[in-house]
Design a protein that fits this description.
Strands 2, 4, 5, 6, 9, 10 and 11 form a 7-stranded mixed β-sheet that branches. Strands 1-3-8-7 form a 4-stranded antiparallel β-sheet, with no helix packed on it. It is mainly beta. It is globular, with a radius of gyration of 13 Å.
Length: 109
């Protein structure tokens, strides 16, 4: 099984990025799927997830209305709009108990 996150970068406040978690060896419908992030000096926190039970989607309060999680057969996406400096972090995808490597998102003018 493999997870490969990409799409991070440097963006100005108010900008957008789309993160992709490319997977192999998973049937995504069978797993809980999530995006997490970790800012310097802080603990890793959940950003958004899709339940494996009923497909329910959850968002952290800090990103509601700005971020959108989605998936297709092999990829998981996180569309991030109206980015703020406090969104700066390393972003990780998680499929079940498997973690991908992180991708850095920096929001700065």
């Amino acid at each position: 099984v493999q997870l490969q996150a990409s799409g991070g970068g440097l963006v100005q406040p108010g900008g957008s990025l789309r993160l992709t978690c490319a997977t192999s060896g998973f049937t995504l419908d069978y797993y809980a799927i999530g995006w997490f992030r970790q800012a310097p000096g802080k603990e890793r926190e959940g950003v958004s997830c899709i339940s494996s039970k009923d497909g329910s989607i959850y968002y952290a309060d800090s990103v509601k209305g700005r971020f959108t999680i989605s998936k297709d057969n092999a990829n998981v996406y996180l569309q991030m709009n109206s980015l703020k400096p406090e969104d700066t972090a390393v972003y990780y995808c998680r499929i079940g108990t498997f973690w991908g490597q992180g991708t850095q998102v920096t929001v700065s003018s």
